[in-house]
Design brief:
Rossmann fold; alpha/beta
Length: 168
């Protein structure tokens, strides 16, 4: 079985800091990824070319990160049948609401998924979930991560209960 990678496309290099948590999550899950910059508005041919060649390059999921009028996700989805996840980036006076609404209002026939504004971690986890459908080892790593999260919640509850008991 070929292990697929995640392609993260940013509309601008200024998005890097907000996208970086996705890279860390993917690294923790041992999912290979690469990042590139392409703009749906300033370099539409480049964006289309990247999307069209992604499958042949071993990509299984595309994360499209952009702020403002988030057309990058749609531009990528229009040029590939790979799953595309929109990662709206919060910029400007609307704080990312414009980007989020642009991402989720795709016309019928060109679907993309979307996470919340600046939701890089969730974008990476969703990409990993998609890849895990055909990668049992990745599914096991995701399960282990979920179990670790659950254990942290149980420990946090124990601390709260202890603090409450001391006040009584």
């Amino acid at each position: 079985m070929d292990t697929k990678s995640v392609l993260i496309v940013m509309g601008s290099d200024s998005d890097f800091k907000k996208v970086e948590p996705a890279v860390r999550v993917l690294e923790e899950l041992e999912v290979s990824c690469r990042m590139t910059v392409a703009s749906a508005h300033r370099s539409p041919e480049r964006a289309a070319s990247i999307a069209k060649s992604a499958r042949a390059e071993g990509v299984g999921v595309v994360i499209a990160a952009a702020g403002g009028a988030h057309h990058l996700g749609g531009a990528m989805a229009a040029n590939t049948t790979l799953p595309v996840i929109a990662l709206p980036i919060g910029i400007g006076t609307l704080g990312g609401l414009d980007s989020l609404l642009s991402a989720v209002q795709m016309p019928g026939g060109v679907p993309i998924a979307s996470v919340g504004v600046d939701g890089a971690k969730n974008a990476a986890l969703l990409a990993a979930n998609i890849l895990s459908v055909s990668d049992p080892a990745l599914a096991d790593r995701l399960d282990a991560q979920r179990q670790a999260q659950s254990a942290k919640v149980v420990k946090a509850d124990a601390r709260v209960q202890e603090a409450l008991a001391q006040k009584s």
